[in-house]
Design brief:
three-stranded mixed β-sheet; 5 strands; disordered C terminus; single chain
Length: about 375
């Protein structure tokens, strides 16, 4: 275990340093090709023109140190037993990265996004990233042929939840770091080496990116980064390298993702709720940008992006700690209690502070 700890520590440092250095290069490249976000009055909160494509640095910081460590026999053995899972993540990740770069540079529409996201999810499911049954209060419901469909919906949902929460300087970064650390803790308790490696590389890469992304951000991660992060977190939330059946349980890794997932479900429900429009128009509006997300609501209330980010991070931390607690039998009651507290806080902040209904615009 000592050798494993050293390998993980080296991976974390290499990922952070690589991401930090590469971000500077990506920033200059994005500015030269015009891949920038301009301030506007819709969902964007920043005041200065800011380059995007920072997700490329996160991805490089995640992947390059993993390639370097392959040369070390012990480090390579950490994932060699789960090479199929790793290949699936790389293949699905390549699709998401291609989609993200295209969207950040040229822009694309929702149907094309969901087509590629679904294809990436199908790859993961085909390699074993899936739910096999639902466990509720000790009762078990086998999903059968629906297992693949439910799993694809979950993966695509998490990808978009992380994408939608990327609406303020550093918000997606700090939320993702917190979730990744909780996944690491759960993996450590389970002895899941595969997840330990993935989450160490992701957390290190995000930490290296943070100095460039903290308010006022010098660069955004863009859809390239947020969707790639969502893919990794979705995959890691349901992977079981032991090959044992995987349950859809509201607890463990899924609870850590509660804030972005619940916020996205609420917002999409609100966008769909207008009974005077056709079903097609309402479905289309579900994927239009507006200021209904929790970070927009809190900025409106506090008048401060810093306070909004701090509030969201506290809620994310509550869900993350609850997730870690629910992963052990003895602490499950405390974990679910803490998760209920986080949910109550999220609902309170969303609905107690909300004023009016912002105008939706096309993305």
């Amino acid at each position: 275990m000592f050798d494993t700890s050293i390998a993980l520590a080296v991976l974390f440092v290499l990922s952070a340093v690589t991401s930090y250095v590469v971000t500077k290069l990506v920033k200059h490249a994005a500015e030269r090709i015009g891949a920038v976000d301009h301030p506007d009055d819709t969902r964007r909160i920043h005041l200065e023109t800011t380059p995007r494509l920072g997700g490329l640095a996160i991805i490089f910081g995640f992947g390059f140190p993993l390639l370097l460590l392959v040369g070390n026999h012990h480090a390579a053995s950490l994932v060699s037993k789960n090479i199929g899972y790793l290949c699936a993540v790389l293949a699905a990740g390549a699709l998401i990265v291609g989609l993200g770069v295209y969207d950040d540079v040229l822009g694309t529409d929702a149907p094309r996004k969901f087509t590629i996201q679904t294809a990436a999810a199908v790859i993961l499911v085909a390699f074993g990233f899936r739910f096999d049954f639902i466990s509720i209060a000790g009762m078990r419901l086998n999903l059968g042929i629906l297992a693949g469909v439910v799993s694809v919906i979950w993966i695509v949902g998490v990808i978009n939840a992380m994408n939608f929460i990327d609406g303020m300087d550093s918000l997606c970064t700090v939320v993702a770091i917190t979730i990744a650390v909780s996944f690491f803790a759960i993996a450590f308790a389970r002895g899941d080496i595969f997840s330990l490696v993935l989450m160490t590389a992701l957390a290190g890469s995000l930490l290296g990116f943070y100095p460039w992304n903290k308010p006022p951000a010098k660069i955004f991660m863009g859809d390239t980064g947020s969707m790639f992060i969502g893919l990794l977190l979705a995959a890691d939330s349901i992977v079981r390298p032991t090959k044992s059946p995987t349950a859809l349980i509201v607890g463990g890794p899924m609870l850590a993702l509660a804030l972005p997932v619940i916020d996205t479900l609420i917002v999409m429900g609100q966008r769909f709720s207008d009974p005077h429009e056709s079903v097609l128009a309402r479905v289309t509006r579900m994927f239009n940008a507006d200021k209904r997300h929790i970070h927009h609501i809190l900025v409106e209330k506090y008048g401060s992006a810093g306070k909004a980010i701090a509030s969201i991070w506290v809620m994310t931390l509550i869900f993350a700690v609850a997730a870690v607690l629910t992963s052990t039998d003895t602490m499950k009651p405390a974990g679910y209690g803490l998760g209920a507290l986080g949910l109550a806080l999220l609902i309170f902040l969303r609905y107690w502070f909300r004023r009016g209904h912002p105008r939706a615009v096309e993305t």
